[in-house]
Amino acid sequence: MQKISKGQEDQRKKPRTRDRILQAARELFNKQGEARVTLAHIGEYMGISEGNVWYHFHTKQDVIYALFMELQVQIRANQQLDLGGGAEIEQLQNLVARAFHLMWEYRFLFRDHINWAAGQPEIYEQIVALTNQGCVFVEHVLEQMRQRNLIELKPQEAPILATNIWIVCRYWIDYCQARSDRQQITEQRVQEGIQQVRALILPYMTPLGHRQFNIQS
């Protein structure tokens, strides 16, 4: 078997140029807004030529679309939730925390989507579908909690509660940015967002749910 040199091993660990371009673009789009960033800006930010960026992405829309697809993959992975094992509430809190982090990491997509998706109806439709999937998924989580006797919820209340939870998850980071002059989101802000979601669920909790939340009913 051919032995791998240290240099080859380091090269394997090094992120691919395409991945580095996406990371740099995401950082610039988040800081400056996608309308103010060009492929040349991305190359300059990375210390490579615009031609090198163009080799991987011919247009800025190609970069944005790749980032959107990247986000979709992470959101779907985050939705592979199966509450169980006696740690349902902890799992739910981890899910919400990850959702907030994703909203922050890809905030330009949510903040600027009216601009960059306006001329691409197929992408706009995917954004709408992603939002609808999010609401359906939250309803699914609530139903799992109901089946495990963590909450007591009437059928007609589930869609309303799911929508309110989704709204908090979707716009909490925007709210924090508006109050902190776009400073880096902190773990404290994420935990505060989780508390907002908990406050929405609290009125529907059963005694078992209260115990799992460590709240005295």
Structure description:
With 217 residues, the chain is mainly alpha-helical. It is built from 12 helices and no strands. It folds into 2 domains: 1-58, Arc Repressor Mutant, subunit A (Orthogonal Bundle), CATH 1.10.10.60; 60-212, Tetracycline Repressor, domain 2 (Orthogonal Bundle). The chain has helices spanning 6-13, 17-32, 39-46, 50-56, 60-78, 88-105, 107-111, 113-116, 121-147, 158-180, 187-201, 207-212. Helix 2 crosses helix 3 (39-46) and helix 6 packs across helix 10 (158-180). The radius of gyration is 21 Å and the shape is elongated. It comes from Dictyobacter halimunensis. Residues 38-57 bind DNA. Pfam families: TetR (PF13972), TetR_N (PF00440). Residues 15-75 form the HTH tetR-type domain.
Q: Which series of helices and strands comes N to C?
A: HHHHHHHHHHHH
Q: What fraction, in percent, of the residue positions are helical?
A: over 70%
Give the averaged pLDDT, no decimals. 81
Fourth-tier CATH superfamily name of the largest domain: Tetracycline Repressor, domain 2
How is the biggest beta sheet arranged?
Answer: none
Work out the radius of gyration: 21 Å
Number of domains: 2
Number of helices in the DSSP assignment: 12
Beta content comes to under 5%
